[in-house]
C-alpha cells in the first residue's frame, strides 16, 4: 500500500504532524480559547507590572517565556497517547509526591508565607504543589478507571487507594501551608469519585466526613489566624478596610470602576497606582475588570467557560473511562480554581491564594495548566480512534 | 457516568452565570460608586494657593509684598490616624527641623480657650504650617524620605513681607490662618482654601481680602498606594490676587510716622499719637499713622504667645489699635470750626463783633477763657485765630436757653450738635478700614440714654456714698455728683452745652473724623468717606476697579462762609496759637493754615491737637496730628505737623515727597512704570 510505505519512510515527527496525523483532530476551539486567555493574561501581566520600575518589561518577558515553555509541554503531552499515561500514572504521582516532600525539607523556600517553592537557580523556581494536581488527576483516573467485575462502579480497594493518595497529597500541601491548593486537590478527588461512578452513599459519607472535618478544624483552631481573618473579612469586608479587608475592598474598587467598557489597557488608575496587592498573580482579574470593563471581564469568564465546556465535551466523547475521568477531573480543577479566583476578586468568595488559570503570572502553575490542556487534547485526538 | 457529567455541565454553566451576574452588579449597577471610590483612593486634591496681591503706594512702591519661602506643613488629620498619634513622625521631624517635639506639638494643636499660642488658630482639618523658614536641605530631607514623613510636606510658598517695617502697620493689617468657623460660614471659601491660606484680619488686608486673595488653583494628583505622586490628572491654575494700589505715599507715611514718634518722645506723658494726611481735593488718604506701632512681620509664620500678649497689652500701649480711626478723644478748640458754623446757622452775623471776656457765667457757674485772659471785642475771624472760648460759651448758652433750657417744650434745634453731625462727627467716616469708631456727640438724647444706663448705679451711690474713697471731701463731692446725676442726669445742663462748643466735656472724635471734616471745610464743602485703596489691578497690569471716594454729606455752609473760616484758620500758624510752632517756617513758600486744640482730660494730661491744611490758597493736604496726653496743641502736635509739611515739601534741604496724582501703571511683567 502506497500510503503505508510512504508513512513508514517519513521521520517520526513528520509523521506526528503530517496531514494524516491525529494532531489535526485536536479541539481547535479549546486551543483558541486557551491561546486567547494566554494573550489576555500577558497583556494584563504587562499592565500590572509595567510600573514596578520605569519601563519595566522584565516580568512580562519572563511570563512569555513561561507560556512558551508551557506551550511546548502542552504540545508534547498532546502527542502522547493518553493510555500510555495511564501506565505511567503511578510514577508521575510518586514524582510529584517526592516534590512535595522536598518542599517541606530545607530544600524548599518560603515565598509570601507559603513554603511551597523549590529554587532552581537562574531566577526560576518550581512549585511542586501545582504538579501535584496533575499527578493526582492521573493517579485517581488510573485507580478508578477499572470498574469492578460486572458493574460500572470502581472497586472498593481502588476507592480506598484513591482516598489515600488524595489525603497524602493534601496532607503534604497542608504542611506548606497552602489552603487553596489543598482545596483544589479536594475538589479533584471529589470530582473523580463522582465521575468514577462511586455509589451515592459513599459520596454522602464523604461529604459528611468533610463537614465533620471542617467543624473539627474550626473548633480545634487548626487554621492560621490569617486564614480566619480572611474568612471574617469575606463575610464583612468593612471589618478592617486597611487590614485584611483591604484586598477585597481594593479589588472591588478596581473592578467596579471599570464600568461597561473599562478604562483601556494601561489606563487603569487603580492598577497604575498598585492599590491591589498581588495584582499580577492572584488578583490579575482586577486588571481585566478595570481596564477592559464589564465586556472584557465577561469575555475572560466566557473564554474560561469555553475551556471548561470543551473539556466536558471531550470527557463525554471519550470512549474509555480513564480519558473521561482525566478530562472530567481537569474540568473540576480548572473550574473550581477559576470560580474561586474570580469569586474572591468580586467579593463572593473568601480570599485564597489561587491563581487564575492561563491568565495569572506564574511558572509552574502555567506549565501545569497547559499540560492539563495537553491531556485534554491528547484525549480528544484519540477519543474515537477505536 | 454520563448523567454525572451532565451534573458537572450544569455546575459549570451555573458558575459562569453567577460570575457574569456578579460582574454586572459590580461593574454596571454599582459602577458609579466604585468609580467614585477609585477617584478618592487614587487621587489627592491639592489646593494650589494663589499668590496674594501686593499692596502698593501711590507711586507703585510696595507697602506689602511677597517673598517666597520654603514652608513645612503637617497634616494633623493624617497624624491622628496613626497608631501612635504621629509621635514618631513628629520626633523625626523635630530632628530634621531642630526644634523640640513639644513645640511642634503645640504648634499643631488647635487654639482653644485653654490652649495658648503658639497654637494653630486655623482650621484643624488642613495642613498646618510649622516652619516658614525651612532651608532647602531640611525640605529635601523631608521630601526624599516621604515614607518616613507621612502627612508632612515641604513646599515653596509666598509669605508676606513688609518693606516699610512698622510704617502704617495698623492701616495695612495682617493675615491669620482661616478658621474653621469662617470656612463653615463662607461656603465659597471651603473649596477655595488650602491649609496655609490666610485671611486678612485687619486693615486693608481685611477690607480688600476678596480681591487680594485671588482664586486658588486645584491640582488633582494621581498617587500610588504609598501616596507617591504619579502624575497630575487635572490642573486648574491659581489666579493670583489683584494688586491693591493705595493713595498712600510711602515717603509721606514714613515722615508722618517719624513726626508722630518724635512728638510722643518729646511729650513725657504721651501714651499714644496719631497722624493723618488726607488729600483735601480728593479725600484720599496719603498717610495714616498710629503710635505706638509694631512690625507686622511678627505675624508671619505664627505669632508667639508673648508677642501676641504684648500687642494687646496696656503697658505696651496696645500697638495693634490704630488711634487714627479707633482712638476717641475730646477735640478741644479744633472743634470750633463746627461751633462757628453753628453760630452762623443760628443767625449770628458773620461780620459782627463779639465780646471775649476772661470769663462767662453759664448759669451759676463761671466758664473761663484759657488762663482767664479777656481779649476784648473780636470778630469771629479773630476769635478762631486767638482761640477765644467765652464767645462760644455765650453762643452755646444762648442757644441752649433758646432750645428750652433744661426742659425744652418743643423739639430742640440743637444747633451745635447738629452742625457737628454735619461735619461728620458722631458716626464713622466710612473709610476702607475695619473697626472704625464713631466718636460721640453728647446731645439731649445721648444724655437720656446714658442716664437710663447709669441711673441705677448713680442712685445707689447717692444713697450709700463712696465709703471706699479715703479722701473725705472727695467722697462727699462724688456722693453729691451721684445724687445730681441720679435726679437729673438725663438733662443737658447749660455747662454741658458750653463745654461742647469748645470741644470739651463728653464730645469725642477720632483723628480721622477731624481730618475728614477739615478736608470738607477747606475744599469744596463736601464730606467724603476717605479712601486708602485707589485701584485694584490685575498682576498683568489692567485695572480691575478704580476705587471711588464716596461723598457722604455736604457742609451746610455757603462758599463764602467756608472761605471766611478758612481764611481765619490760615492765620493761626503765622499769627495765632500755632505761631510759636511755626516760627521760621517759610510761609512764603507754603502757607499752612490750621487750628490748635488742647483738650483737658480728667485725671490725665491734655490731649494735644493740630488740624491743618496747606497750601492755604488752594489746599492740597489736610494734616491732623493728635498726641494723647501730649499737652498743649501748639507745643506738641503743631511742631509734628510742621515736620510733616517740611518733609512733604522738602523744606529742610531734603527732596520733596509730593505724592503722585496719576495712578501708576503696572507693566505686564508686574513691574511698575513710573
UniProtKB/TrEMBL annotation, chain A:
GO annotation, cellular component aspect: cell division site; plasma membrane
Pfam families reported for this sequence: FTSW_RODA_SPOVE
UniProt keyword annotations, A-Z: Cell membrane, Cell shape, Cell wall biogenesis/degradation, Glycosyltransferase, Membrane, Peptidoglycan synthesis, Transferase, Transmembrane, Transmembrane helix
Transmembrane segments: 28-48, 63-80, 87-105, 117-144, 156-173, 179-195, 202-220, 292-312, 324-352, 358-379
PROSITE patterns: FTSW_RODA_SPOVE
Keyword Amino-acid biosynthesis: no
Places the protein is found: Cell membrane; Membrane
Pathway the protein contributes to: Cell wall biogenesis; peptidoglycan biosynthesis
Coiled-coil region(s): none
Enzyme class: transferase
Molecular-function GO terms, alphabetical: lipid-linked peptidoglycan transporter activity; peptidoglycan glycosyltransferase activity
Reactions performed catalytically: [GlcNAc-(1->4)-Mur2Ac(oyl-L-Ala-gamma-D-Glu-L-Lys-D-Ala-D-Ala)](n)-di-trans,octa-cis-undecaprenyl diphosphate + beta-D-GlcNAc-(1->4)-Mur2Ac(oyl-L-Ala-gamma-D-Glu-L-Lys-D-Ala-D-Ala)-di-trans,octa-cis-undecaprenyl diphosphate = [GlcNAc-(1->4)-Mur2Ac(oyl-L-Ala-gamma-D-Glu-L-Lys-D-Ala-D-Ala)](n+1)-di-trans,octa-cis-undecaprenyl diphosphate + di-trans,octa-cis-undecaprenyl diphosphate + H(+)
This enzyme's EC code(s): 2.4.99.28
Topological category with respect to the lipid bilayer: Multi-pass membrane protein
Biological process terms in GO annotation: cell division; cell wall organization; peptidoglycan biosynthetic process; regulation of cell shape
Family, as annotated: Belongs to the SEDS family. MrdB/RodA subfamily.
Role, per record: Peptidoglycan polymerase that is essential for cell wall elongation.
PANTHER family according to UniProt: CELL CYCLE PROTEIN (PTHR30474:SF14)
Protein name: Peptidoglycan glycosyltransferase RodA
Organism: Nonomuraea dietziae
This protein's encoding gene: rodA
From TrEMBL, chain B:
Principal cellular location given in the protein's record: membrane
GO molecular-function terms, A-Z: penicillin binding; peptidoglycan L,D-transpeptidase activity; serine-type D-Ala-D-Ala carboxypeptidase activity
One example of a Gene Ontology biological process annotation: regulation of cell shape
Subcellular location(s) of the protein: Cell membrane; Membrane
Organism: Nonomuraea dietziae
Protein name: Penicillin-binding protein 2
Pfam family, one: PBP_dimer
Residues in Penicillin-binding protein dimerisation domain copies: 48-231
Domain of life: Bacteria
Signal peptide: none
InterPro entries, A to Z: Beta-lactam/transpept, Beta-lactam/transpept-like, PBP_dimer, PBP_dimer_sf, PCN-bd_Tpept, Penicillin-binding_protein_2
Domain Penicillin-binding protein transpeptidase: start-end pairs: 275-646
tRNA processing among keywords: no
Gene3D superfamilies for the chain: DD-peptidase/beta-lactamase superfamily, Penicillin-binding protein 2a (Domain 2)
